[in-house]
Amino acid sequence: MAQVRNKQVILSNYVTGFPTESDFNIVESTITLELPEGSNDVLIKNLYLSCDPYMRSLMSEGPARKGSLSYTPGSPIGGYGVAKVIESGHPNYKKGDIVWGFTKWEEYSLVSAAQIVTKIENSDVPLSYYTGILGMPGMTAYAGFFELGSPKKGETVFVSAASGAVGQLVGQFAKLTGCYVVGSAGTKEKVDLLKNKFGYDEAFNYKEEPDLDATLKRYFPEGIDIYFENVGGKTLDAVLSNLKVHARIPICGMISQYNLTEQEGVKNLSKLIYNRVRLQGFIVSDYYHLYPKYLEFLLPKIKEGKVVYVEDIAEGLENGPTALVGIFSGRNVGKQVVVVARE
Asked: CA 105 to CA 26: how far, in whole Å?
């Protein structure tokens, strides 16, 4: 079998502070499109790659690193993606299948079956959706909001980083449940998107609000029942002073802290006691067993236009580092996707 080109995105150095494009290199390697004899692995052609905030922790040297997922300088970075099976040594997958799971940032990858979350059966929606609304971010929104948030009709919901891959869905799920929902974002364009596209009741630009505590009291005069946490830091601190009794805080992420050498402290933790608040972090992979239930819930709503999704598409693996770095400064509008190949 002839060797073919395999363009890759390589981590050049461990990252301190905000990542930059110079932390990555685009290299041209080669790969033989043939499985090793007796292999149970799956050879895939990557189509769409997902840019996600958690990837920042994988770039660091030291205790923040996440085990086997962590990146090593000189090797390709990895993340969730949609791919086409070229050849399979595993009985669950065959040539031509479209799958989504954890892969490397390169044109072709050899992955274990354990890295594949599922085979894609519903091809009447854009395949790129499986990097977002029908992939890991979608499951994150669903599990965090419904399983941990336990929403009830009429409750009040606040979502930070609300126009991102997860936040745009949480707000729509809240409205479908009959909740009042407010979101924060970092530009006027994103605030408009929240109110006019995603159906948020209210939204504000946190960069224009010098006193977040006062802002939250304005939008939630009687307090917050559910805070879907994506940001951390000063936002979390302000929220803690504006919670109702028995409020819930699913902790999805803390993007404001990922690039700091020393994380910001939170002063208002005592509010958790007085208001009997449930604050819980979660990892989406713990909830992948709910994926069939999620598809049953969501696919009809997508087709009926009751749930919408906005993507920010970067064409070509060579533009991957720019797209990935951009999510940490809020450059993207909606879910950031890198297109490696469309078929």
From this structure: 10
> What's the rounded Cα separation, in Å, for the pair 79 and 159?
25
Amino acid at 15: V
Report yes or no: 219 and 202 within 8 Å, Cβ to Cβ: yes
Nearest Cα residue to 240 out of 204, 186, 278, 209: 278
Check whether 66 has a pLDDT greater than 60. Answer: no
CA torsion, ordered 44, 48, 52, 55, to nearest 10 deg: 30
The C-alpha atoms of residue 213 and residue 211 are separated, in whole angstroms, by 5
**Phi-psi label, residue 155: left if phi above 0, alpha if psi -120 to 50, beta otherwise:** beta
- The pLDDT tens digits of the residues spanning 152-202 come to 999 999 999 999 999 999 999 999 999 999 999 999 999 999 999 999 999
Number of neighbours of residue 136 by Cβ within 10 angstroms: 24
Token pair, residue 129, equals 């959706």
219: three-class secondary structure by DSSP: helix
- Secondary structure string (H, E, C) spanning 89-140: CCCCCCCCCEEEEEEECECEEEECHHHEEEECCCCCCCHHHHHCCCCHHHHH
Does residue 64 carry a pLDDT above 90? no
Continuous segment of H or E residues that includes residue 174:
helix 167-177
The two structure tokens encoding residue 341:
């190949």
- Percent of the chain residues topping a pLDDT of 70: 97
Both structure tokens of 207:
């960069």
Residues 6+ apart with CB under 8 A from 181: 156, 157, 158, 159, 170, 171, 174, 175, 200, 201
Summarize the confidence of residues 35-47 as an average pLDDT: 94
Amino acid identity, position 36: P
Q: What is the pLDDT of residue 261?
A: 73
Tokens describing residue 118: 């599922």
Q: Parallel, antiparallel, or unpaired: how do β-strands 335-339 and 42-50 relate?
A: antiparallel
Average pLDDT over all residues of the chain: 93
Strands (E), 197-339: 202-205, 224-228, 243-251, 278-281, 311-315, 335-339
Q: What average pLDDT score do residues 2-6 get?
A: 89
Which residues on neighbouring strands pair with residue 93, listed in sequence order? none
Say which amino acid occupies 43: L
